[in-house]
Amino acid sequence: MPPPAGEVAPSGLEARARRRLHGTAPFTRAARLLIAQALEALTVVVALASLVFFALRLLPGDPARLVLGDEASAADLARVRATLHLDQPLLTQYGHFLRGLATLDLGDSFRRPGTSAMARVGEALVPTAQLAGVAVALGAVAGIAAAVAASGPWLSSRTRAWVERVLVGLAAAPLVAFAPVVTWALAARARLVPLPGDPDAGPAGLLFASAMLGLPLAAHVGRIARASLQEVARAPFLAVASAKGATPLRVWLVHALPAVIGPIVTVVATQLGALLGGAVVLERLFERWGLGTLILDAYASRDLPVLEGAVVAAGLLFVVAQALGTAVHVALDPRTRGAS
Amino acid sequence: MTVRLASSTKRWLELVPLVVVLAASAVGLALAREPAGRLDPARAWCAPSAARPLGCGEAGVDLLSLVSSAELRAVALAAAVALVGFAVGTPLGAAAALARGRLERAVERACDLVQAFPSFILALAVLSAVRAPSRVHIGAVFALTAWAPFARLALAQTRVLRDASFVEAAFALGRARGGVLLRHVVPNLLGVVAVQLGSTGAAIVVSEAALAFVGLGPRDGVSLGGVLDQGVAAMLRAPHVLVVGAVAVFATSAAMLVAGRAAER
Known about the structure:
The complex is a heterodimer.
Chain A: H1 12-22, H2 26-58, H3 63-68, H4 74-83, H5 90-102, H6 117-151, H7 157-172, H8 175-189, H9 202-232, H10 236-243, H11 248-256, H12 261-286, H13 291-300, H14 304-332
Helix pairs in contact in A: 2-5, 2-14, 6-7, 6-9, 6-12, 6-13, 6-14, 7-9, 8-12, 9-12, 10-11, 12-14, 13-14
Chain B: H1 2-13, H2 16-31, H3 63-99, H4 101-116, H5 119-127, H6 135-161, H7 165-172, H8 177-213, H9 224-233, H10 239-260
C-alpha cells in the first residue's frame, strides 16, 4: 500500500515530474527547446557533410583521378588538386570545407564551369521539395482517412479488419518493386497517367509520382493513427461530444483527431529519411529533374562540389522538415505547450 | 504439451518462405545452363519459353540465372549486415541502459536520429567515393546505420531488466557492470532483439535493389535492382522483365520479414 501523499519527502524523480508538470517559465522552455532543436539540426547537417568529405578523401583512391579519369595529364591533376585544396593538409582542407559550408559556397561545378555548385543544387531542390511535399500531404490525408474510416461506426468489422490488413501489407511493400509495376500497369497498359520521361507530364505526372511516394507513408500513418484512435475511442470527452449531439464524423474528425496528432507527426518525421530515399528512386524512374537526379548525375560525372552540396541540401531538407513537424505538433496539440 | 508443440512448429513454419526462396534460387541456378550475366544479343528481350523459363533481358542475359544468383547474393548480404548490426547494436543499447543518465539519453537520441536519417542518401554519398562499389562497400555502408534499431530495442528491454531482482542480486554479489551485462542482461534480451533481424534483413534487400536500380549496384551487375532497371527501360517492349524483377524483390524481402518472426518468443 502506498504511503499517503505529503508524508514523504519527494524523491528526485518526483521533483522532476513536478517540475515537468508545472513547467519552468514558458519562455525559457520554448527557448531551450528551440536551441536544442537547432543544435541537433546543425549536428546532423555537419555530420552528414563531414562523412561525405572524409569518405572522399580518406578512402583509397585519389579524388583528382576519380574526377579526371586515368588518362589525365599531370598538369590537369595538379589543377584539380589545387581547386579541391587536396595539396594541403587534411585539417586545413576540412577547415576550408566547413567555411564553404557556412557561407553556402562550395566552389564551382566541375562539369559546368562558371556555375556555382550551390546554384545547381538550389535549382534541383525545388522539384524535389514539391514531390516530397505533395507526397507527405497525400500520404497524411489518405492515411488519416483510412484510420478514421476504420475506427468509426461506418464499416462492418470484417471490412475494418481488411483495411488493417491492407495497411500492414502496404507498409511492408518495397517502393522500388511496386512503383515500376504500378507505373507499367497505369501508364503503359491503361494509359491513365503519363509515361515515365514524358516532358509534358505536368501536374498529372507530379501527382502520380507523389502518390507512389506517399503510398507507404499513408500506410504507416494509417496504422499508427488507427492504433491511437482506438486508444482514445472510449475517452469521456468523445462520449460528451456525442451526447451533445455531434455526428460521428464530427466526433472523430474534430474531437478525436487532434488528440492523436502527436503520434501521426512522429511517424511522418521518422519516415522522412525513407521518403527522401524514395524520391531519388522515383526521380530516376520517372526521369524527373530533382535533387536525386542531381546526386546521380554528379556521381556519374564525379562533380564533387555539386555532390557534396546536394547531399548537404538533402540533409538540410530533412532537418527543416523535421522542425516543421515539431511546429505542427505544438500548434495542433494544446498538451505540448506546457502548463501555466 | 500440444500447445508448446504447436507453437514451436509454427515457428519453424515461418522459416518456410525463406527456405523456399533459397531453394528456388538454387534450383534456378542448377536449371540455367549458363553462368549469370552471359550475353547473347541475338536473343535480347526474348519472352519466357521452355528453354528460358523467365525469358531474357537486356542484351540477351538469361533472367533465370541472373535472378537466382542475385537473390542468393542479396540474402547473403542482408544476413551479414543484419548480424553485424545485431552484434554491435545489442551490447551498445544494453550497456547504455545499464549505465543510465547522460549516456543512456545520448544513445537513445542517436538511435532516433539514425533511424529517421536519409540512409539511402548517405549510402549514395559514401559510395560516390569509390569508383565501382563492390558488395563489401555496399554492406559496409548499410552497416553504418543498421545497428540503430537493435540498440533501440536492447535499450528499451534493458530498462525493464535492470530493475529485475536477479540483476540487483548480481550487482549485490559484487559482479562488475560488464559481467552483469554479458552474463545476465544480454542473454535475456536476445529473443526480443532477434525479431529485428528479419525486418533489418528485408530492408537491406530492398535498399540494395534500390541502389542498383539507380545505378550504384555491385560492379558485376548481378542484382535484383539491375533487373528492375532493365525492366523499366523495356517497359513497353518486354514487360516480363519488370514483373520478374518486382516479384523477386517482393518475395525475397517478404521471406526475410517472415523469417524474422521465427525468433519471436
